[in-house]
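Kindly go through the entry underneath: sequence plus fold tokens. Please state briefly how this chain folds according to its tokens.
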Amino acid sequence: MAETVNATPTAVAKNTLLDVRNLKMYFPLTQGIIFQHVVGQVRAVDGISFSIERGKTLGLVGESGSGKTTIGRTLIRLYKPTEGEILFHDQDLSKLGGEDLRQLRRQIQMVFQDPYASLNPRFTIGSQIAEPMAIYKTGNSKQIRERTEELLSVVGLRPEFIDRYPHEFSGGQRQRIVVARALSINPELVIADEPVSALDVSIRAQVLNLLQRLQKQFNLTYLFVSHDLSVVRHVADRIAVMYLGKIVEIADRDELYKNPQHPYTRALLSAVPIPDPKIERQRKRIILSGDLPSPINIPKGCRFHTRCPMAQQICQEIEPAFEAKVGHEHFAACHFSDKVTTSM
């Protein structure tokens, strides 16, 4: 991959399943009722690049409004990207349409945040798990029902639940049903958009462990979207940190937690609780001032400078390059990354 600002300037590995290059997703702002005209743009995703190796998990983190969910919806083509490439099996999803897109999309499934909104209350869970298989004609009615019962067992539910309705299940059980539906047509890539944030804390670990077990069992590749760094640390191999439509840091999981190179990452990590009371009392919590700027009016230079405790004049004028900071697998976009660990 070519070296560009906010790209991941590394050679694409041979076992890469998904390769995203300079992806942009802008939403137009219009005025007028009859004669509408564009007066601006919401730059939800503003030129990001990353890749995910087959069988691995990339965690995508950032606060609300950073563009995480938009990326997931763009990757499965619920949105048509404004610019960039989405290479999956060396085919650019951003340029596919019609039957070609429909056939390739069966290999990419999404698990949404709200398990209550993800299931139709009027249909049995069995019919909803079976629907993708019926659409893609993966078997006759008997085979599809057998496969549905098998999937319920795989996600830890009893096969005899097949004719029950969503209201008869808890939130954690509903999310297991949604996962079963996502697996019904044997996808290779699963985009999990905050899959446990709507669940009770006691249930989250069960669902996370289920996702990890299924990944090993079916050799799945995950893009795991979350605002919770403690959750992402449990499931991800690599972590990308987003801020206002851009990736500001990406590294292997342990490296990111051990040696963050961007002040925003450092601030997020300071909010992650540590179970050791002695260490927790000695930690310095970093409180960011102000709110996330609007994606309609993005600050000039480094877009984090309005909230950064390390910001200087250059940060207000020049956007920092996204470049290697530690080794060849750790990248960050900060003019003063060498001072992040010691100054904050």
Notes: The CA atoms of residues 7 and 49 lie 5 Å apart. The chain has one domain: 16-115+125-343. The mean pLDDT is 88. DSSP finds twelve helices and twelve strands in the chain.
